[in-house]
Write a structure and sequence with these properties.
Layout (H helix, E strand, L loop, with lengths): L2 H27 L3 E8 L5 E9 L14 E5 L4 E3 L1 E4 L8 E8 L3 E9 L9 E6 L5 E6 L3 E4 L15 E5 L6 H7 L9 E2 L13 E5 L2 E2 L7 E7 L3 E7 L3 E3 L2 E3 L1 E8 L4 E8 L5 E7 L6 E5 L4 E7 L7 E7 L5 E6 L3 E7 L5 E10 L8 H16 L3 E4 L1
Antiparallel strand pairs: 1-7, 1-28, 2-6, 3-4, 3-7, 5-6, 8-9, 9-10, 10-11, 11-12, 13-14, 13-21, 15-16, 16-19, 17-18, 19-20, 20-27, 21-26, 22-23, 23-24, 24-27, 25-26
Length: 384
């Protein structure tokens, strides 16, 4: 073989090898698709778990229109609802979707460019200007409200977090405010939980010498994300006096579909505060639960009337923040310190016997215990 022909053949072989190598590399990295692996390495079944993928992890997809992303359950080969999260910012921060995760199991999902389905909302919140600036929010299982400054000095004055019991998966806030008789059960649920001048269903405020210091009800709000899977918002309070110091407080609250509990972050401009998170014991005839091993306090008692069934409320605080758990005349409290960013992060929420999800106090307490254990042993998520 002549040298010239040999060199041509060698060049052709090298080009072919380069093409094969490039093709294999493309298949390996799967350009245009992000694959998410989710593993539950515990013995606990986990339902309606929210998977959150940082926006930076999607860079393989190139330039992205946030309204054109599709998440697919690869085992079922089926598109599932997703939501781009902004956290109140202009640019996206992450994308979320949900899955059930059986004990000791794993699943895979893909994220690609595409036109997503118009998913039905399972989480929603708004300010109710028609009712003293309540801020009300809900998901497919539960609803809550916080009271606005407009309520100060009026009949029905209250401070903490209110719980609205539901037995429907539809969103009810707009309908209930329009009907204005939500203290009566019309079939979808009822507001039968009494808050008054207490922490209610799981608020948290500074405590000084066993006295809880309440600010004026929230003054302004900002919705950070609005469904279909997550509602999140921020409430701002006027400065108030705590142990001789003026303190500024902001609450950030988020609720995901399928959860009985909100995630709450209280932020302060002072670091040397002690914070009490807790639930109201009402007349004292309910069933209390203080579980230091699982970082929660809970209460189970009748609603405002016997026909309204039993309501459970509870608070979970990460162990590293807890200083003490105690009972007072009005509350079950978890006393905590702030983290290095002057925040207290915790979870609170409620359940209802007539929802069909909680037949008694044991069922409610078990839910909180399992929720706490899931926080300690989260799903393992990897992105490829």
């Amino acid at each position: 073989m002549k040298l010239k022909n040999f060199l041509k053949l060698l060049t052709l072989c090298l080009l072919c090898a380069t093409f094969v190598f490039s093709s294999c590399g493309s298949q390996k990295t799967n350009v245009g698709t992000v694959t998410v692996s989710v593993a539950n390495n515990t013995n606990i079944d986990k339902k309606a778990q929210t998977i959150e993928i940082a926006w930076a992890s999607l860079k393989r997809l190139g330039t992205i229109n946030p309204s054109e992303l599709v998440v697919t359950d690869l085992a079922a080969n089926k598109e599932i609802p997703s939501q781009v999260i902004y956290n109140g910012q202009t640019d996206p921060r992450s994308i979320i979707f949900q899955t059930d995760a059986a004990a000791n199991s794993s699943r895979k999902f893909s994220i690609k460019k595409g036109k997503p389905t118009d998913y039905p909302k399972q989480a929603f919140g708004r300010q109710a200007t028609e009712r003293f600036d309540d801020f009300a929010w809900e998901n497919n299982l539960v609803a809550f409200r916080m009271y606005g400054e407009a309520l100060e000095g009026n009949s029905g004055m209250a401070k903490g977090i209110d719980f609205w019991a539901k037995r429907t998966n539809k969103l009810i806030i707009n309908e209930w405010y329009k009907l204005d008789n939500y203290h009566h059960d019309n079939g979808d649920g009822v507001d039968a939980y009494h808050v008054g001048m207490t922490l209610g269903a799981g608020d948290a405020e500074p405590i000084v010498d066993n006295e809880i210091i309440y600010p004026i009800n929230y003054t302004s709000y900002k919705i950070l994300d609005q469904g279909p899977i997550r509602i999140s918002f921020e409430l701002t309070y006027k400065p108030f006096l705590v142990d001789g110091k003026m303190v500024k407080e902001t609450k950030t609250i988020s609720l995901d579909a399928g959860s009985q509990l909100n995630k709450v972050t209280n932020h302060y401009d002072k670091h040397d505060l002690t914070i009490a998170a807790g639930v109201t014991t009402h007349s004292g005839d309910g069933k209390p639960k203080l579980d230091l091993d699982n970082n929660y306090v809970a209460y189970w008692d009748l609603g405002d009337a016997k026909v309204n069934g039993y309501i459970g409320v509870g608070v979970i605080v990460p162990a590293k923040s807890i200083q003490n758990i105690k009972t007072t005349d009005q509350h079950l409290l978890i006393i905590s310190k702030l983290d290095k960013n002057n925040n207290l992060e915790y979870y609170q929420g409620g359940g209802w016997s007539k929802s069909g999800n909680f037949k008694d106090e044991s069922a409610w307490f078990s839910y909180l215990k399992n929720f706490s254990q899931r926080l300690k042993q989260p799903l393992k998520v990897s992105v490829n």
